[in-house]
Amino acid sequence: MTATGTTLVVGATGTTGSRTAARLAAAGHRVRAASRRATPVPGATAVRFDWYDPATHGDAVAGTDRVYLVPPVGDPDPAAVMLPFLARARTAGVRRAVLLSSSATAAGGPAAGAVHEALPGLLDEWAVLRPSWFMQNFTGTHAHAASIREDGVVLTATGSGRVGFVDAEDIAAVAVHALTDDRAPGTDLVLTGPEALAYDDIARIYTEATGRPVTHRRLTHGQLRDHLTRTAGIPAEFAAMLATMDRTIAEGAEDRVTDTVERLTGRPPHTFHEVVTRETARSAGAARP
């Protein structure tokens, strides 16, 4: 890796942003950790940043030469705020950007797909990370994790469809390389774990790793949509989109693995068993007085 200037990490308190900021700081890079509350991050300078408040953008990007971009959560058209920010960042001296997108979204697709498509025309140095679904969905604050803790069940409309679930630590490791290597990837990188797993497999492995019985309850598209709206309070349009994403998994859209993590980091990606064991041990340690 080459010595760098200063990296702005947008979403520095989130699942991948926090891990990326921590890894950059641990490696000796200067980091500006951006969040809406300017939450302190060890080894980084905390700055306030709100995608919907352009007044926060100038101070956040000042003095930086690269940026890790996490789109605003739940926004169906993030390009409306992200592209003006990127143009401003380029003028301020940013020369490299790494965008967090999704394996389900290609360039020109919905949500971050529009930013992905525009990024090469805005900056010469760039990469788009397209991770599969996070393993941390089953251990953190995601609805699946809450359902496991409360009822010992995972509810999906994925049937027997498989997903190359990926560890957020592996995403962050790739992000650090994309941000700091001598040459930016200049492409999109699909990130997965070492194997594609069905949700039945997820339930089984979680049970084996923790000793807590977990089952996968298969729902129809309509049942999942209604459950998300009624129980989780998710707006009907967004709930329908989430249910449709499950249906695409059932149809095989996420049944793949890539060598990207090992190719860029020099080590294999973590298994789901490793991640569940690690994350539950962390949670147990944090809960002790």
Automatic annotation (TrEMBL):
NAD(P)-binding domain residues: 11-107
A family per Pfam: NAD_binding_10
Membrane spanning residue stretches: none
Ranges for domain NmrA-like: 128-255
InterPro entries, per the entry: Ergot_Alk_Oxidoreductase, NAD(P)-bd_dom, NAD(P)-bd_dom_sf, NmrA-like
Source species, domain of life: Bacteria
Name the record gives this protein: NAD(P)H-binding protein
